[in-house]
Design goal:
By secondary structure, the chain is of the alpha/beta class. The chain has one domain (3-283): Protocatechuate 4,5-dioxygenase, Chain B, CATH 3.40.830.10. The chain contains eleven helices and ten strands. It has helices at 14-21, 31-35, 38-46, 98-110, 125-135, 160-175, 205-217, 219-223, 227-234, 244-249, 252-255; strands spanning 2-10, 51-56, 71-74, 78-79, 94-95, 116-118, 145-150, 181-188, 260-271, 274-283. Helix 1 (14-21) crosses helix 5 and helix 4 (98-110) packs across helix 6.
């Protein structure tokens, strides 16, 4: 059967993608940001997933005010990087996994989560920047990826608790897929950042580190935090962090009494206007 064995969490900052695409990863400003992923890149080579479920948000690139799905699973065969106003990033197209994605859609909808199924979509920095950070420059991504979009752009945004329970439902769905597959689930976005208004540039290092501590050790309590607290403490775009609860809720310690190990934890400010957070959690075999 298929199994979720690890979860990866990371910010998805467009300027990091631009630094990567323009060969600036060795510059003084960017070096510490990219170095924060070195350990995880090595770990991914040794713990290669067969499929990644990548939870991200579209930033009004493919979706817009004309259509706002709360949760959307991409069930199609492939997805191109989006043109976000300055051309599409020069990164490989994303190959999907229609069979597993359709199975997850079927099983999760039967567990009363209303997922939108999307077969054709271009994917923006929310998805492609984490791939570059964790796989570097490659001709093709090393495995199929199932993009899973969450609305964190337009109120109302789903609660952390609902996201956590959705992660549990995704785990059950994956576990009932008959093929032996090593599946990783990624949560992207965050950490504290506000891109607009009088508090633009807000970064809250203490709160971000509290979030990382509790995501590791007290994830159920953390998921109960109301959405308004993210906005107050981590800025208007800090609400992206609710997506991390989907990945956390899908881990074995939550569902099957397994033990977790922290493979890597990284925090750095600033990158562009944003705090960079990154965490890798894996089943302690
Ligand atoms: C920026 C945009 C994002 O979507 C994000 O998550 C972080 C930063 C930006 O435009 O700087
Ligand atoms: Fe974002």
């Amino acid at each position: 059967m298929a199994r979720i064995t690890a979860s990866v969490y990371t910010s998805h900052i467009p300027a990091v993608g631009a630094a990567f695409d323009h060969g600036k990863t060795g510059e003084d400003y960017w070096k510490p940001v990219f170095a924060g992923y070195d350990k995880s890149k090595e770990w991914l080579k040794a713990n290669k997933p067969d499929v990644i479920i990548c939870v991200y948000n579209d930033h009004a690139t493919a979706f817009s005010l004309s259509m706002i799905p709360t949760f959307a699973i991409m069930t199609g065969p492939e997805y191109n990087p989006a043109d976000e106003g300055y051309g599409a990033r020069p990164v490989p197209k994303v190959i999907g996994h229609p069979e597993l994605a359709s199975h997850i859609a079927s099983e999760v909808i039967q567990q009363d989560f209303d997922l939108t199924m999307v077969n054709e979509i271009d994917v923006d920095h929310g998805l492609t920047v984490p791939l570059s950070c964790l796989f570097g420059e490659v001709k093709e991504w090393p495995c199929p990826i199932i993009p899973f979009a969450v609305n964190v752009v337009q109120h109302p945004v789903p609660s952390g608790e609902r996201c956590f329970r959705l992660g549990q439902a995704i785990r059950r769905a994956v576990t009932s897929y008959p093929e032996d597959l090593n599946v990783h689930i990624w949560g992207t976005g965050g950490m504290s950042h506000q891109l607009q208004g009088s508090r633009a540039g807000l970064i809250n290092r203490e709160w971000d580190n509290m979030f990382l501590d509790k995501l590791i050790d007290a994830p159920k309590d953390l998921a109960k935090m109301p959405n308004i607290d993210y906005v107050r403490e981590a800025g208007s775009e800090g609400i992206e962090l609710v997506m991390w609860h989907i990945a956390r809720g899908a881990m074995s310690d939550i569902n099957d009494g397994g033990k977790l190990k922290v493979v890597h934890r990284f925090y750095h400010v600033p990158a562009s206007n944003t705090a960079v957070g990154h965490l890798v959690l894996q089943d302690a075999a």
